[in-house]
Design the sequence.
């Protein structure tokens, strides 16, 4: 946990911002896998962590702004609990560590809220993402779970605070990145012909766990990098394959890292692989150099797309004027997703609070209909203190090509004939994490090799 | 998956058993960790697996007994889905593999059930354990989630079938045990002074994952074996500690193993450790030899408790007549939990369906108030084809001792003075998995070393 003052000061800022009513924070529970008592690893809600820091299940908290009261609701251990789970720090003591003096049994939360409701005070709450909290909110507020109506002022105040990272938060993210960088080098050393993708995932998970971290998200470790969210890890590596490894650690305090590297199984890229890899690298570098306060991330995304198109024209897979191609969204046949997203206590930071508040503003709303842009999680103007990912890629998706080709879609920009010979190419992504600084950006964490030469040399020196 | 015939025949048996109405099966979803799209590893509901075998999220099925119709409800992939998750086998094809011809979009499930409800037909469903299915049931049946009322005839029919394991299921359990046995040997080789508990857990998880398995449950790997459900793994191993390792693999098809071994960090047990270890081993062997059809498992539990008391009297920690001590539940100061439980597709098999139906019968109800017996998950008469665990233990829990001692509880059986000097002793458990056969029992999986001599020799040969 951070210092008592950290949590007190964060809550005090929030309280001033929302100005009246009761702020309700729901912690997470231990979620059942296949029966109630067989549970997934516990992960506290990130906003609860941000304002209270206690990584324990079955807690809730309120900040009663009108009465200037902060209370944590939860149950102290019974002797039966102690037999099963061992003696633990009391809730009282845990609460003192985040500067909260008052704790009450969980069962008293409902009546507290009902009381406030009766006095016509507003109960502010955030959008629940776990079903258990949807059910709980329904019970606490005596409404149908479908009528849950999160508080926009509360959301906006939380987003405003959590978007600007404190130095101690940046240090935590860099801890996650130090571990993640080693995970990626280990993956490069582990990969070899005829092992399964899951072997690599298992090895890097082992490394993360050994270094007091978990995965920040289910890792993508695949020879089919073109499948954007690929959980399948049963393929065997063969000569000529590339591995796309998108994985990052989460520190014990909950801060994430999110890195992607793509490298050849056989130690050397083929000519085609090298050429497209360098196209992605150029798009990555172009985007990175553009990062600074005041720039719209949507423009960085489109700039990166333009670099991709220029490279794809050089290779012969696209044609025509790159600027016009990007305006026509022709690049989305190769780059279907967004350039990046906010990162912090969540790998997609605050995604539970709503992309329209985190990655966009009312003045800069999201384009929710255009293929490509509708998957761009971050579009707004950048500010000093933002932490984000930059992750351009090229993904050759046969089903999408077939669909576009059938419609002869944007054929003025796409060389469908040559593209046919790339059907089995796969996908390439390069991803690092950056802090927006007053005068530009800073790469977070150690520098992780990413040029063709560095990767080939590393693979050659460590495997063959 | 098993053969088409397997699932058809299981469903046909079930259908005959319940005889009328609509049987509703809800599959599991991908559960959010910290926001909707960051999800825990998917695990299909075990009953859904048993009757339909499809390990994919967002499915439901019905067996409409009155109309002799079986339908799987779920959605085929859209082009957007394919971009993100890759081309996959269609729901239609997956359904054919379990012998179901008819599939419909998920959205049609509600109206199908409403229609049946209007015709006053009974909709049978099982107790939901994931909150998402509590919410879904509420919506589908248009009832408050609190008014959910599972079908006892459906539960009983499922329990009757799943309790008697088929040969192919036993083979799967033995696959899980083959991997688990190696995990336990690896743990013994990995443990050494000054590493953290979590290093061992990470190593055995790596092994499981490398062998196409997951953990069947969160592993307990601890120097505080007296804490029965100990998720904490940050302690450093020291000379003189014992490690209690309770961990088991789950195969890709979902079958579990559940093994526990306790071994000394330093390669040799101390005299006190060896003595109590042998007490537990004798209680284990005594219980095992008693396993056969027709025997009440509650009696096996009490027999095992009696062996424990006899051993504890020999050591001097208990006194008086062992039989009387067990009748007075004096052993529960050392053995607070149950001797074992059913095992299969769940590590506590069918625990979601209710212990009163799985581990007990109406004629043999559970004792839900007596400390010790209230934690015995299985009490009923054993039948050929049951698969269960046997796992006696001795757990020295300081908080519990203090409580009993203050009340001078059962002091005719407890030697509290000597016990004080054991306060930091820890805990020991030995656990294997057995099949009940016509004439007794069969140990499932490979034999895993458990005598003091074998463990000390193995530790000596592989570590020091």
Sequence:
């Amino acid at each position: 946990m951070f210092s008592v003052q950290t949590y007190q000061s964060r809550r005090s800022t929030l309280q001033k911002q929302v100005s009246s009513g009761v702020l309700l924070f729901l912690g997470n529970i231990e979620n059942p896998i296949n029966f109630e008592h067989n549970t997934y690893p516990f992960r506290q809600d990130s906003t609860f962590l941000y304002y209270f820091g206690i990584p324990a299940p079955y807690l809730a908290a309120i900040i009663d702004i009108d009465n200037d009261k902060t209370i944590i609701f939860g149950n102290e251990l019974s002797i039966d609990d102690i037999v099963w789970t061992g003696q633990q720090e009391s809730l009282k003591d845990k609460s003192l560590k985040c500067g909260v003096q008052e704790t009450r049994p969980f069962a008293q939360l409902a009546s507290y809220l009902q009381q406030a409701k009766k006095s016509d005070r507003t109960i502010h709450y955030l959008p629940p993402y776990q079903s258990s909290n949807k059910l709980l909110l329904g019970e606490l507020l005596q409404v149908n779970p479908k009528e849950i109506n999160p508080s926009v002022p509360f959301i906006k105040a939380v987003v405003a605070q959590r978007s600007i990272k404190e130095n101690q938060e940046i240090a935590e993210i860099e801890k996650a990145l130090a571990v993640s960088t080693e995970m990626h080098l280990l993956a490069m050393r582990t990969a070899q012909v005829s092992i399964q993708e899951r072997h690599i995932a298992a090895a890097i998970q082992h490394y993360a766990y050994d270094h007091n971290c978990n995965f920040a998200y289910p890792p993508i470790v695949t020879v089919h990098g073109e499948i954007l969210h690929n959980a399948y890890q049963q393929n065997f590596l063969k000569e000529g394959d590339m591995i796309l490894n998108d994985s990052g650690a989460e520190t014990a305090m909950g801060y994430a890292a999110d890195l992607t590297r793509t490298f050849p199984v056989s130690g050397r890229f083929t000519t085609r692989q090298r050429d497209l890899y360098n196209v992605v690298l150029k798009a990555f570098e172009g985007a990175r150099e553009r990062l600074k306060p005041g720039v719209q991330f949507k423009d960085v995304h489109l700039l990166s797309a333009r670099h991709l198109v220029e490279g794809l024209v050089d290779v012969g897979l696209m044609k025509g004027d790159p600027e016009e191609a990007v305006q026509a969204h022709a690049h989305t046949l190769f780059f279907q997703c967004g350039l990046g997203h906010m990162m912090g206590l969540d790998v997609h930071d605050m995604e539970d609070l709503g992309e329209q508040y985190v990655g966009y503003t009312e003045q800069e709303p999201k384009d929710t209909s255009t293929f490509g842009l509708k998957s761009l999680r971050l579009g707004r103007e950048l500010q000093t203190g933002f932490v984000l990912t930059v992750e351009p890629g090229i993904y050759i998706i046969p089903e999408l090509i077939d669909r576009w080709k059938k419609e002869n879609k944007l054929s003025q920009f796409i060389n469908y004939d040559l593209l046919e010979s790339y059907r089995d190419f796969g996908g390439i992504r390069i991803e690092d994490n950056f802090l927006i600084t007053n005068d530009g950006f800073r790469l977070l964490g150690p520098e992780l090799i990413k040029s063709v030469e560095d990767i080939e040399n590393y693979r050659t020196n460590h495997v063959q």
User: Anything to note?
Assistant: The first strand of chain A starts at residue 22 and ends at 26. Chain A has a mean pLDDT of 96. The domain at 167-462 of chain A is CATH 3.90.230.10 (Creatine Amidinohydrolase). Chain A touches chain B through 64 residues (CB under 8 Å).
